[in-house]
Amino acid sequence: MEPPRPEPDDAVVMLVAQHRRLEELLRRLVGADAADTRREALHEVGDELALHVIVEERVFYPAVAAASTESVLLESLEEHLSLKRLLDDLLALDPQDPTFGPKAHVLQEQCEHHHEEEEEHLFPKVVLLLPQAHRLDLGREMLREQGRLRREGAPREALRRQTDAAEPLRSD
Ligand SMILES: [Fe+2]
Ligand SMILES: [Fe+2]
């Protein structure tokens, strides 16, 4: 979808920009051959994916939970679980393992599909639901949370502890 307005702190604009950045990092991961390049690209994908998914689950989804968004949010949480499990598998693999390439490709496909779902079925509803002032507050809160997670170091490790079940849908 087209971002509603070119306001970088708008939560929806911010999440769409993070999708494009993640897709770029995933292309780099899938294109990498050497073990150290693969490992480095995977860590970058893992950290960015973690920052994105964690703020969606802790900040964004609860703020936008409503009757009109519930089913897409529940499906999104299941898609997040699948992404976390794939990432966990990849981080446990030797980058030269023959399954590394195919698994990285599946992670790329699932991420792209998930981004499409959010951009087509969730974000347009959020734009109708929340006035821009609210989306700006939300965007700033998301940035603060991401800064905190970054300072803790290796955000990807937090995702690896969340592979048992999908996070429950909370509402503010
Ligand atoms: Fe998501
Ligand atoms: Fe997202």
UniProtKB/TrEMBL annotation:
Pfam families: Hemerythrin
Region (Disordered) location: 147-172
Domain Hemerythrin-like per the UniProt entry, residue ranges: 12-126
Alphabetical list of PANTHER family matching this protein: HHE DOMAIN PROTEIN (AFU_ORTHOLOGUE AFUA_4G00730)
Name of this chain's protein: Hemerythrin HHE cation binding domain-containing protein
Organism listed in the record: Rubrivivax gelatinosus
